Amino acid sequence: MQTRLFLVVCLFFIFTKQDAFSQLGFSHEVGVISGPIAFYGDYGQRNDFDTNIGNSTIGIGLIHYLNFSYRADCNCYTRDKYFNDHFKVRNEIDYHKTQFEHIGEYVDPSKTSITANQLRAMKGSTTVFDIGTQLEYFPLSIRDFAATTGSFAPFVSAGVHFVSYDPEVYSELGELNSTITTPTKYLNAFQQEGDSTWSIVTSVGVRYKLSELSDLMLDARWQYYFSNWVDGLNPSLANNGSVPVPENKANDWIYWINVGYIYYLD
User: What are the phi and psi torsion angles at 15 (to 5°)?
Assistant: First the structure.
């Protein structure tokens, strides 16, 4: 609850300080984004299409841009510098909740082993809030794009987000962490408590100039968490690390395709 309050306060600060920030020589844009997220964690089969589609959700976000090419305090363009005409700072707060289950060949109906039954019965979810900043680079002129309705502006971005997550793991067979309900590699390798971590974010996208004061945006994002507990599972720790789990090669991460609407604050 404290983390969520912190996120709201940060967002409030961004928007309520608009007039003061404008005096520093830039303008503001605000918007919303939403789209499908594929969560790559420890549920299901590695490199399996059905797993990637099955463990997915819809994410939503609020975004705020610092636009250095235009000054809101004087309704005029800033000095013609390369940074001003090709870079924006993107501040963002996001939310998504993903439901998990094991999918793939190891839980195929033809599999009748104890482990297959345990995997089919294991379910979970995670709720994720994150807030952060990215630097967006536009190879084409931001000023030219802003002046031409119907134009396109491709971009790439990179940044860092603070992440708050709250996982839940359970089995339909009963309480986890017994050999009756839990596959060997998941014994002592799950977490039910919320926690926080950091993540790196990279994306590639394009804007479309809808009107003088509004854009549409399509953005494809890769976000890598600095934790393997975001989905609540970490099988590399099973039995205190005595059971090798070679398929657990990376921390949790997501791939997010979102569509956004952006409005320029005059």
Answer: -85, -35
